[in-house]
TrEMBL record:
Compartments reported by the entry: Periplasm
PANTHER family per UniProt: ARABINOSE-BINDING PROTEIN-RELATED, BINDING PROTEIN COMPONENT OF ABC SUGAR TRANSPORTER-RELATED
Function of the protein: Part of a binding-protein-dependent transport system for a sugar.
Name assigned to this protein: Probable sugar-binding periplasmic protein
Pfam families tied to this protein: SBP_bac_1
Membership in a protein family: Belongs to the bacterial solute-binding protein 1 family.
Amino acid sequence: MKTFKRALPVLILALSASVASAGEVEVLHWWTSGGEAKSVSVLKQKIEGQGNTWKDFAVAGGGGESAMTVLKTRAVSGNPPSAAQIKGHDIQEWGKLGFLTDLSDVADAEHWDQVLPEVVTKVMKYDGNYVAVPVNVHRVNWLWVNPDVLKKSGAKVPTTLDEFFIAAEKVKAAGFVPLAHGGQPWQDITLFEAVALAVLGAEDYQKAFVDLDMDVLSGDKMTEVFVQFNKMRDYIDPQYRGRSWNAATLMVIDGQAAMQIMGDWAKGEFAAAGKVPGKDYLCLAAPGTEGQFTYNIDSFAFFKLSDEENRKAQKQLARTILDKDFQEIFNLNKGSIPVRLDMDMSKFDQCALDSMATFRSTSTNGELVPSVSQGLATTSYVQAAIFDVVTNFFNAKSPDPQQAAGKLARAVKSAI
Ligand code: GAL
């Protein structure tokens, strides 16, 4: 009894300390597919392990269109979450509106400027200060292959667009779906930007979608992009409308389809299904884009909060996202590569090692380009204009490639 009495004040102190440090972090994201949910649960566990409460704010829908709509309503009504999955140019737009909080103290203490590549840090800062934290680097220009289906079709693994169409023809003749594709605009643009990179090359891709150069946007090479993009339609099954990206990946996993052109979040689905790269499936650069890297950087932007405890918990979240242990487990599940440059990569598979090597080499040789479909290339206004033209073209009855290039330039011009 005596010991208990003596221990009581200590116990009360310890309890109140843990209560005092506990806050709530509410995180908005659209990671709801198998691989994605597994990845985000790693963050939840870490936060709960710190004694904080995780409030999940998941809004389904790859590409995040629905999530952004919900977020706007919440933020405008003065009740933002602690952090939200906001990427690329959108970070600047939210920063300009005055919603985001300055994370400089955490960034300085954790040396973010030293451990992150510059291509990443410049996206995360508004007005010179960190307002967002990067989670990973996704490569978007990938081709995912079911080798069994290619074998059964007598087709070879394609590395160029010409080879892709030869293989696709054989797969179709053998009764399989050559290209698994979903029916959402951002998925159309994912396919379009892969074809654009192959046809235009990195320099003209950059001129078209980053510099918004009207000559390249409306030029002959852009017409050729639309010609090749249009040919892809012949190899997609008629049920693609409304299909999600992960349902398309499942078609490759199940052997209904031979290939998918999609970012490496698709690898998260293969991994969640227990599939082994190099055996059950292959990862290759999208046809004609070997040695090039289209990047997508997932990040969380941090909102201004009024509650002191929640602000503390929010800073712990910021620190945790770039913690080496979290970076490793999260990215192993997500299919992406860690965003820190000083990571031990020994647990990662060949796809991730290839991605990391290409990310590093392209950082200095001009072959690294931002993804249009993922909001890294240009503002949300210009992006919406590009989405419109490309998706209307892809779903039209008799699309005209030359007209589409002209429309693209005009649409971009009016959105600048
Ligand atoms: C992207 C996001 C990826 C992936 C994908 C599909 O926008 O950056 O992490 O999850 O959507 O949901």
